[in-house]
Design a protein that fits this description.
Layout lengths: L9 H4 L8 H20 L11 H6 L10 H22 L12 H10 L2 H13 L5 E8 L3 E5 L17 E5 L4 E7 L11 E8 L6 H4 L3 H10 L3 H10 L8 E2 L5 E2 L2
Helix pairs in contact: 2-4, 6-8
Length: 255
C-alpha cells in the first residue's frame, strides 16, 4: 500500500448543490487529485518515511534540501498537489455551518474590518489570478517581506517583473491573502506563513458549474466551508505556531 492516500470523502462525492456537481467531483477528486497521489507514490523511495509531507514541502526551496532537480519538481507538483487538495476538500462540507464567534472570526474582523470586507477582498484577489493557482488566507508568525502589486491586504508570493511592485513588510499576527502558482503552497516560501484556508483556482474546479465566472465560484466556496473545522485549525495549530499537516490517510492532522 502506498504511503500517502486520499480520504474517502463520501459526503462530498455525489455533489454539493449549487457548488460541485458529480462530473466536477469525479474529475477533480477521482482523476486529478488521485493523479497527484499516484505521482507522489513514485517518490517514496527518495523520501524518509519518518518525515511528514508538509515538512518536505516547507524545505523544498531551501539550500539544505537535497533532491535531484527533476525529483524536486515532481515533489512540488505531486506533493504540493496532494497537500493543497487535501486541505481544499477536507475543509468543504455539504452541510450549512454558521461562522460563529471565535478566534478566527475575531482576527479576520480585526485585520480586515469586517467579515464581508475580507470575503470581498479574497474574491477580488482570487479572481484576478490568471490561469492555474490557489488563493490562501495565512497568518504571519514572523517578520516577512513581500512584493505587493496593490493594496496591503494582498501579498503575492510570485514576483511579476512586468508590473511595478512595492515592498510590504508584515508583522507577526497579520492575516494576509496570498496567491500561489500551480501547486505551490505558502509553506514552501516561509515557515512564518501558517495556512488558515485555501481555495483551488484551477478551471476544472468551477467551469462545469460556473462556466468562466470565477467570482461567483469563490463567493459560493465561502458558503460551503466547514467553519467549525477551520476554527479548530486556527486555534489548535495556527495560533500556537504549528504548521498545518496532513495524515498519510488524507486527513488534516489535528492534536
Amino acid at each position: 500500500m502506498a504511503r500517502w492516500n486520499q480520504d474517502d470523502i463520501k459526503n462530498l462525492y455525489s455533489k454539493i448543490d449549487g457548488f460541485i456537481d458529480e462530473r466536477t467531483m469525479d474529475l477533480h477528486y477521482n482523476v486529478l487529485h488521485k493523479k497527484y497521489v499516484d505521482g507522489l507514490a513514485k517518490l517514496e523511495s527518495d523520501l524518509n518515511k519518518s518525515i511528514p509531507l508538509h515538512v518536505y514541502l516547507s524545505k523544498i526551496y531551501s539550500t539544505e534540501f537535497s533532491l535531484e532537480v527533476e525529483k524536486k519538481e515532481l515533489l512540488i507538483k505531486n506533493g504540493g498537489g496532494h497537500y493543497n487538495h487535501t486541505i481544499f476538500f477536507q475543509t468543504l462540507t455539504d452541510k450549512k455551518i454558521d461562522f460563529k464567534e471565535g478566534n478566527l472570526k475575531n482576527d479576520i474582523i480585526k485585520n480586515f474590518g469586517s467579515f464581508d470586507e475580507f470575503v470581498d477582498v479574497f474574491v477580488r484577489k482570487g479572481s484576478s489570478v490568471f490561469g492555474s493557482g490557489w488563493c490562501w488566507l495565512v497568518r504571519v508568525t514572523g517578520n516577512v517581506k513581500f512584493s505587493c502589486f496593490e493594496d496591503s491586504y494582498y501579498k503575492n508570493l510570485t514576483l511579476n517583473i512586468d508590473r511595478p511592485t512595492k515592498l510590504i513588510e508584515c508583522s507577526p499576527g497579520d492575516l494576509i491573502i496570498v496567491c500561489t502558482d500551480k501547486q505551490e503552497s505558502p509553506i514552501m516560501y516561509s515557515d512564518d506563513l501558517k495556512i488558515c484556508m485555501g481555495c483551488d483556482l484551477f478551471e476544472h474546479s468551477y467551469l462545469n458549474v460556473f462556466n468562466a465566472n470565477k467570482v461567483e465560484y469563490i463567493y459560493k466556496w465561502f458558503k460551503h466551508l466547514d467553519w467549525s473545522l477551520l476554527e479548530r485549525i486556527y486555534t489548535e495549530l495556527v495560533l500556537v505556531n504549528k504548521p498545518l499537516g496532513i495524515t498519510e490517510t488524507g486527513k488534516i492532522s489535528l492534536p
